[in-house]
Amino acid sequence: MSKLVIVESPAKAKTIGKYLGSDYVVKASMGHLRDLPKKKMSIDIEHDFQPEYVPIEGKDKIIKEIRSEIRKSDFVYLATDPDREGEAISWHIKELFKLKDKNSCRVTFNEITKQAVRSGIENPRDIDIDLVNAQQARRILDRIVGYQLSPFLWRKVKRGLSAGRVQSVATRLVVDRENEIRAFVPEEYWSIEALLQTADGGKFSARYYGDANGKAELKNEEQAMHVVNAVTGKPFTVGNIKRGKKKRTAAPPFITSTLQQEASRKLNMTPRRTMSIAQELYEGIELGEYGLTGLITYMRTDSLRLADEATAAAAGFIRGRYGEEYYPGKPRVFKTKGNAQDAHEAIRPSNVQLLPEEIRKYLTPDQFKLYRLIWSRFVACQMADAILDTVSADIVCEGQVFRASGHTVAFPGFTAVYEEGTDDEKKQDSAGKPLPRFDQGDKLTAEKIEPSQHFTQPPARYTEASLIRAMEERGIGRPSTYAPTISTIIDRDYVTKENKALRPTPLGEGVTGLLVDEFKSVADYEFTANMEHELDEVEAGKLNYIQLLHNFYDGFEAALKQAEIDLEGKRIKIQDEVTDVICEKCGRNMVIKSGRFGKFLACPGFPECTNTKPITEDTGAACPVCGAKVVKKKSARGYVYYSCDTYPTCQFMTWDKPLKTKCPNCDSSLFRHTDRDSKEVTDVCLREGCGYKELVKEGLPPEETEKRRKMREARAAKAAERAAAKEAAEKNGETEEKVKKATKKATTKKSTAKKTLPWMTKTTNKFKKLKDEAVQELTAKQQEQYAKALAKYEAEKAAEKAKKAAEKKAAAKKPAAEKKAAAKKPAAKKKTTAKESAE
After folding, report:
1. Residue 61: CB partners within 8 Å, gap ≥ 6?
2. DSSP 8-class letter at 253
3. Which of 30, 44, 564, 619 is within CB 3.0–4.6 Å of 658 for a Cys-Cys bond?
């Protein structure tokens, strides 16, 4: 009998299976195996919110496989992810398969390394029912809000809308920021920059600071020109000089929110993409001689805690790689925020000796970038402070004070490895440039004195990174919910993303306004943050989750009933977003509408005017055919493509992304082309007759490229068959339903036919020799079958070769054999006659 380990993903199963050996069977559940059904609420509110869980549709095969393995095993380890969701998945598996405590247990791995996996198996525990209850409470809350509030929005606003606890508050954050921007009144102010020169030719800039009375603000042009006129043509003198040293300390290691923020800033990755790649790094990557290896610790965490062995490994690496002076002498410890769960370590590399550059060839570009970010941040957080030599000088002229400041790096410390990014691109260290050498009393000359007008700026729109930080600061959501929440509000058209900035749509503003007015329990910041705190209390075993649900639902139900009364007979109209695009048919400003395949421009004069057109976006590139603008468009099925702005006058269209760089041969705009099969990336010039091409990224090997090409062509052929069948059916008057049934029947019949083995030709069913790479892709059983077939094939070949050789030899000796046969013939006849006579 074997031991069964159940994890969530196949990649994780493969890595853990390698570490545990043949005594263990590792199976993947592919996430949850049972949940609340999709088509009904399935929460019995009257009986203490009793949920009705059912096996998830489409998971029958996985459930059957796991049940079969459980029957073969004498013990089951539930090794799903070490968080609330993972705990709940393990609990559902235990309930679904009716596992007993004596034959099953819960194990967790903070990182997927050999040591961590074996340690986890050696330290099993029971399922933490408090963690499970916290997840159940969140799931039930979200189901109640979704199934009772969404229909209300359908009736009062627009059909198909949805509402959720966290997503509604996240949308409100974006809406409130937009309202702040609209209400902002800019104020004028001026600055004066003086370009100064020392006696020995050194140049630097100084900014107006004030006068002898202290700092002064220049609020208009008159005040600014008064200072400029006072100092123009006059000598400047160096006044007080302050020199000092400034220390800069490294940022702490990543937690989920800071990883998502930094990946957005530095790598331009969405939170969803960041977490997807981090999951791959956590579950394990094939690293050649190292084999399958988990590269980072668990990526859903809000703790800054680091294991002692990790900080010790970092200390040894820093001393060996950078020198003793780069290590601060003892491990750095970072304080975790008070509302953090602190269930896991911070995000760090599982082995600091696996340098990003050394394993780059095994990683995809995105995996490499994210691993390097995590690795660098962890190493830097254990390094010594950076030390800067700073200088600040007051430069005086006619009683007006200008100030210059700068710094030089005395010791780079952690900045030799990593520096943290910022959301504000304009934010720079005012002491960013070194100053030339000068002393107090030195005379300076002004080469230029330049006044500049400015206006105060409104707060910046949220980016995905800054929205996550705002949610974290307000206690809204938890590490596992940030990325899906932002994806949801964008996908449901409550928020739109312009470059990196998030802006609310009219729909998002309308729904948010309704929720703020009628449902404090859904759209209130403080209420939502408090709910997260109460869920943490459930997890800690301090609060009964049934009581939490009652506390929420009593107020929510009352608000829902009151909203129905307040809005009886009313319907909230969402205003269309008006654009500056003029309808060429009737002259009205076109508006943005949403349809089945996304947004488009429509004339507001419908039904009198039915003009529509796709939304285009200027790419900054020029058409290689006529020189007009190249614009970005979306097809009816939502695919992005690029065409000439004068279409259909100019028929230019391409799937290749336009670039702002120019062709060195003809000065036309370049386009970035990615080959569908090889994934080779090139910058190409599409102007006829030019032919310029520059390699950006190498593609896959030729064998892999050919394999992909054949698969793509096979898919295209099947799609063409289906399209032809549909067209023929339409001509014959058959319905689409009949065509689907006929296609399904043909596919079923085809799938039940005997499959051709990989080493047999499809047409003649003869043996064909496989390449070594192809043999490696076969299953163990297929490899055994192939070996037998190959031996038989080679034996037949050898026999056939020997037969041909014998025939050739016989043919060469034929004349001599014929003479010998002729000589023997009479004797044989005579002998026979004698024999016959004797008889």
Report:
1. none
2. P
3. 619
CB 604 within 8 A of CB 591: yes
Residue linked to tokens 């960041």: 274
Q: Checking DSSP bridges between strand 24-28 and strand 2-7, what pairing results, if any?
A: parallel
The structure tokens 């004698």 sit at: 834
SS3 for 46? helix
Q: Residues 157, 510: contact at Cβ < 8 Å?
A: yes
Render 545-576 in DSSP notation, one character per residue: HHHHHHHHHHHHHHHHHHHHHHTTT--PPPPP
Question: Residue 724 to residues 54, 729, 731, 739, 743: CA-CA distances in angstroms?
Answer: 40, 8, 11, 11, 11
Q: Which of 77, 208, 282, 298 is catalytic?
A: 298
Question: Is 298 designated active site?
Answer: yes
Q: Backbone phi, then psi, for 502, in 5-degree steps?
A: -100, 125
CA distance 629 to 733: 45
Q: Report how far apart, in Å, the C-alpha atoms of 250 and of each of 386, 434, 743, 796 are.
A: 8, 22, 62, 71
pLDDT attached to residue 608: 87
DSSP 414: G
The C-alpha atoms of residue 623 and residue 689 are separated, in whole angstroms, by 15
Q: Which helix (H) or strand (E) holds 495?
A: strand 495-498
* Confidence check: pLDDT of 233 > 50: yes
* pLDDT at residue number 815: 57
Nearest to 272 by CA among 464, 143, 8, 462: 464
Residue 369 CA to its chain's centroid (Å): 12
Q: Are 162 and 147 spatial neighbours (Cβ–Cβ below 8 Å)?
A: no
Max CA distance (Å), the chain: 154
The CB density around residue 629, as the number of other CB atoms within 10 Å, is 15
pLDDT in tens, 10-42: 888 888 988 898 889 999 999 899 999 988 899
In SS3 terms, 696-730 reads as EECCCCHHHHHHHHHHHHHHHHHHHHHHHHHHHHH
Backbone angles phi, psi at 160, to 5 degrees: 95, -5
Lowest mean pLDDT, pick from 85-94, 176-185, 382-391, 427-436: 427-436
For tokens 């220390």, the residue is 247
What DSSP element (H or E) covers 392? strand 386-397
b (16+ CB within 10 A) / e for 348-361: bbbbbebbbeebee
| Two structure tokens written together for 184 | 């902002």
